[in-house]
Amino acid sequence: MVDYGKQFMLYLMDEKCYDNYFVEFDLLDGDCFRALLSKGLGLGIIAGSVLVKVPQITKILANKSARGISLFSVLLDLFAITIHMSYSFVNGFPFSAWGDTAFLALQTAIIAMMVLFYGGSTVLAGAFTVGYSALVYVLMGGLTPLNYLLIAQGFNVPILLLGKLSQAFTNYRNGSTGQLSAVTCFMLLAGSLARIFTSIQETGDQMMIITYGSSSFANLVIALQMLYYWNASDKQQKKKKAAAPAAAAAAAPAATKKPKAKSKKTD
């Protein structure tokens, strides 16, 4: 049992930190604490990513509509996530540093397929599913050189910003966030912010750090829009409720008025 416990702890920290904590009982080692915190955050983000876009998917299914969701934004987001996942996998980075992108890629691909399906393009939805599966195999199956993935990763920042901000523009143009899920938006923001720290701690890769910083900014814009349009919608509902009794009171006298009888003309 002790051996299993040690193996598990060595997954969370290196041998030196294990000895510091469990042999020398030095619990104030700053480097070991940051490493352990980063690993714990990474695993927590991966666990959360399993369900992060499920509220969005269920909202589309419940309404049988993808109104207000920008397909362009979803596809750009999917491309950025897929490139980031492939780049991290081929580089051999720890799974705790990028594992959430695997679940995010799957869920984003499902959303893209549903947008096409509910938009009336059943054939395109099927073709997209096959095409995306083939792309993932090419990128992660050893068929794409690492230097190509590095170049593609370099395009991730503008792609992420363009994709997320095009969704923000769609929200602004529609005056609402449509079928976007608030839970998904806020979870994505929290995850991208935490990933800045884990990328610094576990990989030190500047490209990954910049990518997550840009993603956090774009996610923050959409989260703020979610709050703004949520509050605006609540105010409109309150105005409607306040106006309803006044309208009913004004309509009541008009409904009870009797029409005046026409005077008969006498010869």
Automatic annotation (TrEMBL):
The chain crosses the membrane at residues 69-89, 95-116, 209-230. This is Mannose-P-dolichol utilization defect 1 protein homolog. One of its GO terms (biological process) is oligosaccharide biosynthetic process. Belongs to the MPDU1 (TC 2.A.43.3) family. It is found in: Membrane. One of its GO terms (cellular component) is membrane. It is a multi-pass membrane protein. The keyword Transport applies. InterPro entries: MannP-dilichol_defect-1 (IPR016817), PQ-loop_rpt (IPR006603). Keywords: Membrane, Repeat, Transmembrane, Transmembrane helix, Transport. Its main location: membrane.
